[in-house]
Each structure stands twice: as structure tokens, then as C-alpha cells.
Design goal:
It is a single chain. The chain has 440 residues and is an alpha/beta fold. It folds into four domains: 2-127, N-utilizing Substance Protein B Homolog, Chain A (Orthogonal Bundle); 140-173, no CATH class; 181-236, no CATH class; 239-439, 3-Layer(aba) Sandwich (Rossmann fold). 48% of the residues lie in helices and 12% in strands. The chain is built from 19 helices and twelve strands. Strands 5, 6, 7, 8, 9, 10, 11 and 12 form an eight-stranded mixed sheet that branches. The chain has a four-stranded antiparallel sheet with strand order 2-3-1-4, sandwiched between helices. The longest helix has 23 residues, at 151-173. The radius of gyration is 23 Å and the shape is globular. It starts with a helix and ends with a strand.
Length: 440
């Protein structure tokens, strides 16, 4: 069935780009297959890895092709990328298996006429050195190709952080991310989780900074089985997202507004913290994300959330103890998890999104009563969406001030301004930013 896994990977990768996020497409596709857990992991690695490394794969393949690679049929390119990824990045696939399986795949997807070409290019690729070290004088474009990122992003990062940290970030983005889980707040769910893990002989490793978070490094797939997920024992969530939840500091009985709530992980964590006497009002404009929020809440059995579909930038907001703006952003801090995001982002998105972020922030601040707290957060590494935007907001709204972070937010994740700011290679979590604001 591994051949079927390759076929599914090809179908997901060769779909029209406008279909949507590759993570969502892959999840939906795998949910409707009879593949085993092992085969699903193989398919996921093929799809995500080939997507991340697409630019590097294309450069390597073009060097092995005697004609114009950019004129090659799109579907044949995806065949070659899949084969090349297995050759260079999947140690568990022997080279002969990568070659023969890619040729077989070509026949199975009605591209038999391309078998000779595929074999020739991949064999030439196999003979060549796969260099990974680049001279100090390498241009931004050369680095971007080598580490499979867009040149415009690499140029920005080199300007902000220099070569070493930019390379560290790109290497982080090209790794398979660790899957983290947040355990439920109540003792009953925690006890059931511990009993389940013991019955499976699984070791759950707590995060060093946020003990409510754990990973099962060797066997995360066991936790993602539908029968396990349906028990509602945990939330799939990175610890950096947990730090944003802790920045909100949700307390039992509070009413909290969660703007831009999809896909629902932070919404669920907030609801778990405020308990049955509290209430979360979750605003979300995207209908698909509303469905995801509902699915998460139903799985966890949380009934203290009101989902309010619509545009949170203009509609009246109810009075609340706290407001979370988990703002739409470029997502440059989570590119390891969202494999296709680096290819979907364009320079103009930074301007467009920072404008939307300011609109959200100013609208929410108008509904912030004295004593209440507003947390503004992004999963971006870009200053224009983070500290620069907060400073501009405060210049325009001089009755607002920064409030200190609660002790539950790891102090080592705070920058010199007291804002939560994680850098993935340094902190080994997603790259996120957050500040707490109050009005005088």
C-alpha cells in the first residue's frame, strides 16, 4: 500500500494551487482513505517535505535535465520532485526503491510516456553531490534556493538578523515539526490521559517551560488516531500558542472575547480555563474555520463557547473581562508547520495584513473597559506586524499602556520590551508575538 500512499501524495501535490491550504487538503484526503497509520505518516512526509523543499528540488532537477525545465509539464515536475525528495531527504527509502517507485507511479497516474525522462533525470541526480555548505559570499538568492525559501523573505531576514540566524531559521522551517499537545485542566481528564498512555506503554514528555504541554516524540501518531482524539483528552497545540493563552490569563467565570478565533485551538484552551461558569465569545469570518471550531468544541465537550460568525473589524463587541486578538498575519513564525505558506506569501501581503491588524486592534480597543485586558498576538516574525504596529497603535491611542505579562508566560520568552516573542531556532517552539494592553 506504500505505492498507494505515493499516488495519494502525487494527487495532493498536483492539485490546482487555488484549491486551498495543503495542510487542509492533505487532512481531508487522508480522512477518506483506508491507509494504515504508517502509510499516512509516509504520505504526510512526502507531501509536506516535497512542498517545503520545492525550490531546492527544482534547482537540482533543472541541473540534471538537458532541456528547459521551466517548460516541463507541471504533473511531470511533481513526479520528479517526489522522486528527488525520496532520494535526498528520506533515509528510510533506498535509492533503487525511490527510482523504481517513481517510475511505477508515472504509469499509475497516466504518465507512462514520461517514465524514460523520469528515470534519466533521477539517475543523473543520484550521481551528483548534494551539497549543503555554501560560502560566506553566497547571495540572498543562492541561499534562498539552497534552503528552499522565497528570495524576498530571505533578503528581509538577512537584513534583520544576519546570515547565521537566517540560516538557522530556514533550517528550522525545513524540519519535520514536533507535534505538541495541551492536556485538559481538570483532574479527571488528566487521569484518563495518564491511564490511556500507560495502557499503550507510551511516554508523554512534558514541556520544560509549560508543564501542561507534552509530546510523544517517537509515537505521536498514536495520539492522533480518531478513536483517541474523540475522547477529548487533549488539544493539539504548540507551547508558544499556550503562552498566548497564558498571556490572556483566563480565570474561572470570566467572559472573554476571542477575535479571529479559527481554527479553534486557543478558543478551546480559553474555554477549558474559564470553566462552565465562564463564557467565550468566538468571532470568526471564515465559514470553513467556523466548522473547525465547532468540530473541536464538540470533540472536547465544551459548551461554554458562543460562536459569532462575521467580521470582527466592524460589528459591535460585547463587554468582557478580556479580549484576545489572534490576528491574521503572514505566518512567518509557523512556516515549518504550514509547508506551502512560504510559497503563498507575497511582499504586498505584509502591508495588507498590517492594515487589517491595526483595524482590528483599534476596533477592539474602543470596546475595552478600564480594568479589562486586550492581548494582541500574531504568529509572525515581522516587525511591521508586531512591535512596530503596537508602537504606532499607542501613538494613535495614548490612553493605552502595556501591562506586564503574567508569571505563567515563560520569562525567557519575553523580549526587552516585555512582549512575548519567540524565535523558533532559539526557543524550539513556533515563532509568536504578543502584548497585553490596558486603557487608563
Amino acid at each position: 500500500m506504500i505505492d498507494e500512499a505515493r499516488k495519494i501524495a502525487f494527487r495532493v501535490l498536483s492539485r490546482p494551487a487555488k484549491v486551498g491550504r495543503i495542510n487542509d487538503t492533505l487532512h481531508q484526503t487522508l480522512s477518506n482513505t483506508s491507509l494504515s497509520s504508517r502509510e499516512k505518516r509516509f504520505t504526510t512526509e512526502l507531501v509536506m517535505g516535497t512542498t517545503r523543499m520545492k525550490r531546492r528540488l527544482d534547482a537540482d532537477l533543472a541541473a540534471c535535465y538537458r532541456s528547459r525545465y521551466d517548460h516541463m509539464q507541471r504533473e511531470v515536475k511533481w513526479l520528479l520532485r517526489l522522486g528527488a525528495y525520496q532520494l535526498h531527504y528520506m533515509d528510510g527509502v533506498p535509492p533503487h526503491a525511490a527510482l523504481s517507485a517513481t517510475a511505477d507511479l508515472a504509469r499509475n497516474v497516466n504518465l507512462a510516456r514520461a517514465v524514460k525522462l523520469v528515470n534519466g533525470v533521477l539517475r543523473e541526480l543520484q550521481r551528483r553531490d548534494h551539497a549543503g555548505v555554501f560560502p560566506a559570499e553566497a547571495t540572498p538568492d543562492e541561499l534562498a534556493t539552497a534552503f528552499s525559501h522565497p528570495t524576498w523573505l530571505v533578503e528581509r531576514w538577512l537584513e534583520h538578523w544576519g546570515r547565521e540566524r537566517t540560516v538557522d531559521l530556514m533550517e528550522w522551517n525545513n524540519r519535520r515539526p514536533t507535534i505538541w499537545f495541551r492536556q485538559r485542566k481538570d483532574a479527571t481528564h488528566q487521569q484518563r490521559l495518564a491511564q490511556w498512555a500507560q495502557s499503550r506503554d507510551l511516554t508523554l514528555e512534558a514541556h520544560s517551560r509549560l508543564p501542561d504541554y507534552f509530546a510523544a516524540t517517537d509515537t505521536p501518531a498514536a495520539l492522533l488516531e480518531p478513536a483517541v482524539m474523540e475522547q477529548g483528552l487533549f488539544i493539539v497545540q504548540d507551547p508558544a500558542s499556550g503562552a498566548i493563552v497564558n498571556a490572556v490569563d483566563p480565570q474561572p467565570g470570566e467572559v472573554i472575547l476571542d477575535l479571529c478565533a479559527g481554527p479553534g485551538g486557543k478558543t478551546a484552551a480559553l474555554a477549558d480555563c474559564v470553566g462552565p461558569t465562564g463564557r467565550i465569545l468566538a468571532y470568526e469570518i471564515d465559514h470553513q474555520r467556523v466548522k473547525q471550531i465547532n468540530s473541536t468544541l464538540n470533540r472536547l465537550g465544551l459548551e461554554n463557547v458562543d460562536i459569532l460568525p462575521g467580521d470582527a473589524t466592524s460589528r459591535p463587541l460585547m463587554e468582557a473581562d478580556k479580549i484576545l486578538i489572534d490576528a491574521p498575519c503572514t505566518g512567518t513564525g509557523v512556516m515549518a508547520r504550514r509547508a506551502d505558506l512560504r510559497w503563498r506569501r507575497q511582499p504586498q501581503h505584509l502591508t495588507e495584513l498590517s492594515s487589517l491588524q491595526m483595524t482590528l486592534l483599534e476596533h477592539a480597543a474602543r470596546h475595552l473597559r478600564p480594568g479589562a485586558t486586550l492581548v494582541y498576538a500574531t504568529c509572525s516574525l515581522e516587525p511591521e506586524e508586531n512591535w512596530d504596529l503596537v508602537q504606532k497603535f499607542q501613538e494613535r491611542n495614548q490612553n493605552t499602556y502595556l501591562a506586564p505579562m503574567p508569571s505563567a508566560v515563560p520569562p525567557v520568552w519575553l523580549n526587552d520590551n516585555g512582549a512575548l516573542q519567540t524565535f523558533p531556532p532559539d526557543h524550539h517552539v513556533d515563532g509568536l508575538f504578543a502584548v497585553r494592553l490596558q486603557v487608563s
